[in-house]
Amino acid sequence: xxxxxTLAALQQMKRDGRKIVGxxxxxxxxxxxxxxxxxxLVSVGDSVGTAMWGQRDAFAVTLDQMRLVCGAVRRGVTxxxxxxxxxxxPLQQGPDAAVAAARxxxxxxxxxxxxxxxxxxxxxxxAVVQAGIPVWAQFGVTPHGGAPRTDSTIGPDDxxxxxxxxxxxxxxxxAMLDFTHSGPVAxxxxxxxxxxxxxxxxxxxPWLDGRIRSIVNATGYVAxxxxxxxxxxxxxxxxxxxxxxxxxxxxxxxxxxxxxxx
Length: 262
Hints:
This protein is of the alpha/beta class.
């Protein structure tokens, strides 16, 4: 499709100083919605295990499960670039396993594959890139664990280390970076040090080339949003809308009224 965003287009956005808008989604319906809203990057996160399936952590998510979710999201997107997380395991098993897993995700429609904790596995990152598969490399504090970093805990040595990790990943051929918990000190330093886009979710900010946000949290499409006192921190509270709708449906059934739409 001529209007579909390419990786080259996102890289040009950094050079032009235009911010990249990324969201994490897990299903075709939400994929269609965010794509029509005009986001630039749709990320299929391995957080699907905890956010949607009730698993204890992301380590439980398998490659086959990620392929299933990736395919569903891909079928809902016509414009944005689609990224898919490689789950824990293949990257840690070495270059051959990482390449094989990345190829399976590309088969399901991933335009770029996200590799968590990438600085610990530079050979695998290089191998995936050399196989012709674009890599979005994560570094900083890994999503799978570790305390969030704040300005008070990031010293000069930390900034230098993060810049070094970003440079290493760029040298390995990564096309984009995901800097988790960057903070306003290390974040700008990394953005200035590498020519590729640097995005961030947790602990990120406007100092990065773009942001990535879980759409279920951003819109309150989570059960615990029912108990939120305010909308601060979210752009909507879908959970309350759904609850109110279900209560209205239940009232119609119990009052022997015809239900809407059927």
